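Dear colleagues,

As part of the handover before I leave the project, I'm documenting each prediction I ran so the next person doesn't have to rerun anything. This entry is a single chain, and its sequence is reproduced below.
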Amino acid sequence: MERFIAFTLFIPVYIVLLYMFTNPKESFLFGRKWMFEDKKLEPSPEVIRHYKIMSVVLIFVITLLLIFL
């Protein structure tokens, strides 16, 4: 029963992490567009790479937690 609850609670987290991996530019700007004045909102390539790496690492860690807990 506990595994089922943990699995259902982590489904939205997986969805957000997959969105971060597939659309790192949009996920970086989500909730931050008001901070910029001009319309050309371009995060640097380092930020995009960081978001992709972070999402893959978190997907891996969450999967391990769900398997071994």
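The chain has one domain: 2-68. The chain has a mean pLDDT of 89.

All the best with the project,
I.
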